[in-house]
Design a protein that fits this description.
Belongs to the PanB family. Keywords: Pantothenate biosynthesis, Transferase. GO terms for molecular function: 3-methyl-2-oxobutanoate hydroxymethyltransferase activity; magnesium ion binding. Its EC number is 2.1.2.11. The chain has two domains: 237 residues, TIM Barrel, CATH 3.20.20.60; 36 residues, no CATH class. The chain is built from twelve helices and eight strands. An eight-stranded parallel barrel has the order 1-2-3-4-5-6-7-8, surrounded by seven helices. Strand 3, helix 5 and strand 4 form a beta-alpha-beta unit. Helix 2 packs across helix 4 and helix 6 runs parallel beside helix 8. It is elongated and about 85 Å long. The termini are far apart. The chain binds 3-methyl-2-oxobutanoic acid (KIV) and sodium ion. The site of sodium ion (NA) has 5 residues, from loops. The site of sodium ion has 5 residues, from loops.
């Protein structure tokens, strides 16, 4: 199967076919997402939360992100690979942004990068990266890297003034050369309006059904963290397509029980033998 490129993405968008995107963080998740035929694989900075256990996406470093990217790139053969630029590596200066983006491609093996926000400075960063020859995906609405300024993970653009600002940001990012935009946690009608106005695809998460595509976080859609005592909740907008956490939990409990009862490994999983006389010679 041929690799998904910007041209493949453009063709689907032009044909009105929904684009599919899922996050992945390591080799096995990349193999799973890729072989399921998902178009775009995002190495999200949500890794900070779902892989490293932080409460926000802020702590993850560019080094850690490139390491996740490399593992994902080894596992993906078909999907278009987008890597999140982490908090703190692109905001201060467009030159920092370009350097960080180049690392995500050269060291991380990504096809494109994603950055958050649509302020004039972010738009400049996006433009500088695009001019370097690196494809950029934008991200507006709820931008988790701004959780400190927003005051929590809260839905965005619920009043007209804010909705118009998100639209302005989306248009500015399109003009800067972004090939697509994530719309996170904005009302469906607002996302639909932005999608109609733009001429690049929108990828929604908690943004209703009329975006050009949808994205979910791997661990959330698989129900990986469904443990009753686990503090992190699956977001309201996320459908759980499985309860993989329960499957993992019961497998591990059965293993523990079988070892404790000396049922495992038993003869079936004890494959290495020595001829009888050799065993006797050791006695
Ligand atoms: O980091 C992430 O997982 C993301 C998606 C939710 C779009 O940015
Ligand atoms: Na992200």
């Amino acid at each position: 199967t041929a690799r998904v490129t910007l041209r493949t993405i453009r063709k689907k968008y032009d044909a009105g076919e929904p684009l599919t995107m899922v996050t992945a963080y390591d080799y096995p998740s990349a193999v799973h997402v890729d072989t399921a035929g998902i178009d775009i694989l995002l190495v999200g900075d949500s890794a900070a939360m779902v892989v490293h256990g932080h409460d926000t996406t802020l702590p993850i470093s560019l080094d850690d992100m490139t390491s996740h990217c490399r593992a994902v790139a080894r596992g993906a053969r078909r999907a278009f690979l987008v890597g999140d630029l982490p908090f703190g590596c692109y905001e201060t200066d467009p030159r920092d942004a370009v350097k960080s983006a180049v690392r995500m491609l050269k060291e991380g093996g990504m096809d494109a990068v994603k950055l958050e926000g649509g302020s004039p400075a972010r738009v400049e960063a996006a433009r500088a990266i695009v001019e370097t020859g690196v494809a950029v995906m934008g991200h507006v609405g709820l931008t988790p890297q701004s959780v400190s300024a927003i005051g929590g993970f809260r839905p965005q653009a619920q009043v007209a003034e804010e909705a118009l600002r998100v639209l302005d940001q989306a248009q500015a990012l399109q003009r800067a050369g972004c090939f697509a935009l994530v719309l996170e946690c904005v009302p469906g009608p607002i996302a639909a309006g932005i999608t109609r106005v733009l001429s690049i695809p929108t990828i929604g998460i908690g943004a209703g059904g009329e975006c050009s595509g949808q994205v979910l976080v791997y661990h959330d859609l698989l129900g990986m963290m469904s443990h009753p005592h686990h503090a992190k909740v699956t977001p309201k907008f996320c459908k759980q397509y499985a309860r993989v956490g329960d499957i993992i939990g019961s497998a591990l409990q059965r293993y523990r029980q079988e070892v404790e009862e000396r049922v495992f490994p038993g003869p079936q999983y004890s494959p290495y033998r020595m001829p009888e006389q050799e065993v006797r010679s050791l006695a």
